[in-house]
């Protein structure tokens, strides 16, 4: 059974649709998701892309992120999927 994330990952074959590109355009909001986005924008070691939210969650846990940041991954990942969907359908 395919998940929404799997479907999007299969569709995304363009180099300009990676997580770092999303971050470069993502608005920093006044909430925990915005805090996480701001932190990731400043992370010089952040990989260009993640294949699933758990991979991103593991990365930020390895960086000793607070529980709030790991909880924010789901919302940031939704924003990323929505951003990709908008680019694919343009």
Description of the molecule:
The chain is built from five helices and no strands. α3 packs across α5 (67-88) and α4 (53-62) runs antiparallel to α5. By secondary structure, the protein is mainly α. Helices cover 64% and strands 0% of the residues. The longest helix is centred in the last third of the chain and has 22 residues, at 67-88. The chain has one domain.
Rg is: 13 Å
Give a short account of the largest sheet: none
| H-E string | HHHHH
What share of residues are in beta strands? under 5%
Helical proportion? 55-70%
What labels would you give this structure?
mainly alpha; 64% helix; 90 residues; single chain
Which helices and strands appear, and what pairs or packs with what?
Layout: H1 4-11, H2 19-25, H3 32-42, H4 53-62, H5 67-88
Helix pairs in contact: 3-5, 4-5
Can I get a quick summary?
The chain has five helices and no strands.
């Amino acid at each position: 059974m395919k998940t929404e994330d799997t479907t999007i990952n299969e569709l995304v074959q363009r180099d300009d649709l990676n997580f770092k590109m999303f971050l470069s355009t993502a608005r920093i909001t006044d909430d925990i998701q915005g805090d996480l986005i701001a932190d990731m924008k400043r992370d010089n070691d952040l990989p260009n892309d993640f294949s699933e939210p758990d991979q991103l969650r593991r990365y930020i846990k390895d960086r000793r992120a607070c529980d709030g940041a790991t909880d924010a991954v789901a919302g940031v990942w939704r924003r990323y999927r929505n951003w990709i969907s908008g680019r694919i359908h343009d």
